[in-house]
């Protein structure tokens, strides 16, 4: 095996089928030379050019928390970003919620709308070298009480109206008149 024209010291005996030289961590042009029993050498056809690509820098995810479904809630933020990198907010590790292109600044994702665990994965525009960002955010979005007020819509003068509040169990609160 040659890398950039230099012998690496890796050699394998021929088997008549495909040969693997195992994982290679060097960057460069890889060639192979075949040597037969008579010590005749031949540069094999084909070249593999390996270019190592940098993974995105790791930034911290923060925000989130617990709120009611009828409240605005807290946003989810990434402490920084890089240009030419897409940052994807994932719900429960698999469901993409939102993707934002990096700009060198903090990223603000939209407010979480579902209870779950949120993470962020960074993907450069020009490679498959994705990188998980640091941290995860657990959000809990509690349902607000669903109440129904019913009663007489009309009443005679000097008479009273009766109102009834239909509410689910386990609700406590107060009346505002």
Distance between the termini: 86 Å
Rounded radius of gyration (Å): 32 Å
Largest sheet: 6 strands, mixed
State the CATH topology of the largest domain: Immunoglobulin-like
The count of domains is 2
The tally of beta strands, per DSSP, is: 17
Structural class of the helices, strands and pairings? Answer: mainly beta
Spans of at least 5 consecutive residues with low confidence:
none
Name of the CATH architecture of the largest domain: Sandwich
pLDDT averaged residue by residue = 84
Q: Element order, helices and strands?
A: EEEEEEEEEEEEEEEEE
Helix content: under 10%
Task: List the total number of helices.
Answer: 0
Query: What percent of residues are in strands?
Result: 35-45%
Estimate the global geometry from the Cα principal axes: rod-shaped
CATH superfamily of the largest domain: Immunoglobulins
Written account of the structure:
- The protein has 177 residues and is mainly beta.
- The protein has two domains: 1-52, no CATH class; 61-142, Immunoglobulin-like (Sandwich).
- It has strands at 2-3, 6-7, 28-31, 33-35, 41-43, 48-50, 61-63, 66-68, 76-78, 85-91, 95-101, 107-109, 116-124, 131-132, 137-142, 148-151, 163-166.
- Strands 8, 10, 11, 13, 14 and 15 form a six-stranded mixed sheet that branches. A four-stranded antiparallel sheet has the order 2-1-3-6, with no helix packed on it. A three-stranded antiparallel sheet has the order 7-9-12, with no helix packed on it.
- The termini are far apart.
- The relative contact order is 0.16.
- The model has no long low-confidence stretch (mean pLDDT 84).
